[in-house]
Amino acid sequence: MADQSSKYQRWYKREWSGTAEEAFQPKVIKEGILVGSKALAKAPEIYGVPTGVEGLDELFFITEIKDGKPTKKILGGIPAYSVFNITGVSDTGKSLMVEQFAVEQAHRGEKVIFVTVETPAHFAVASLKLRADAKGYDFSSFEDNIILIDAASHVSLRENIPNLTATMEYAINEYGVKFVVIDSVTGLYENMEMKARAIVRRLYSFMKEYNQTALFVSQKRSGHEELSAEAAGGYAVGHIVDGTMVLAKELIMSQYAARLYNKPVGELVRLFRIDGCRMSGHDTRTHFLEITETGLVRILGPIGQQTKEE
Fold first, then answer.
1. Biggest alpha carbon distance in the chain?
2. Which sequence spans correspond to the domains of the chain?
3. What tens digit of pLDDT does each residue of 288-301 get?
4. Cβ–Cβ under 8 Å, residues 125 and 118
5. From CA 17, how far away is CA 21, in angstroms rounded?
6. Closest among 294, 308, 229, 218 to 54, alpha carbons compared
7. Does position 307 have pLDDT exceeding 50, yes or no?
8. Cis amide bond preceding 184, omega within 30
9. What is the pLDDT, as a whole number, of residue 261?
10. CA-CA distance, 170 to 4, in Å (whole number)?
């Protein structure tokens, strides 16, 4: 445990130390220089992590060269060790999606941290249980695989990122955690969006240091374009992480939209798009998204394909 603590202290010192004066006294950081072979030796093997979201896992792939020809290999999940931004306006299914992910990992016997920033832990875990029930899982058999960090109830966690990362580090070491969900990261920089990119970068760096596969929920303002990757805090928030999934909704109010979506005027359609993934290939098309009556998110076919089939 002492070694792990020193590891965290080294990470904390590297990420958070330094003063404005030091910026005018540049020095060589030799530990920041790695030749390709040494960097590659540290690189983990990339594989797919099942998300528990129907229709999503097949959208990520890697390309292998066999007999001189490229061959697409479906990952069967998001890339392991990736950090994804899940963004959209309210009521698009973001929290449902990350709850399904957390439940899926716990059901598979993995430990997962769920940082709840918007809702107190006892309400958040009740919602997680609903997701498990909807999937036909016995929540009581794996409920302790989910470690909740209640930043909603504790200002010292919500408004002090060093406290939050130290608490996550403790939980990772104590429980052997491999997965982290933060719902929502936007709540960590409310009223101080100028610091948004710095906060997200600290969290991203932390996840990489501890080899976590992570999902960060971020909110869109109502003025943002529905299918853009922009979230509160600006475009650069999404650019820091490994990839972004955009969830959107659109009320059909014109005959053009009715023809495009093959739905009647007045109906609400939900949409999903992967906006980049630097760790693997991904489907770039816009897909229909459905929230079932039991509160599960499903990714359906792409817009053009589904319209033709119908």
1. 66
2. 44-309
3. 999 999 999 999 99
4. no
5. 12
6. 294
7. no
8. yes
9. 84
10. 9
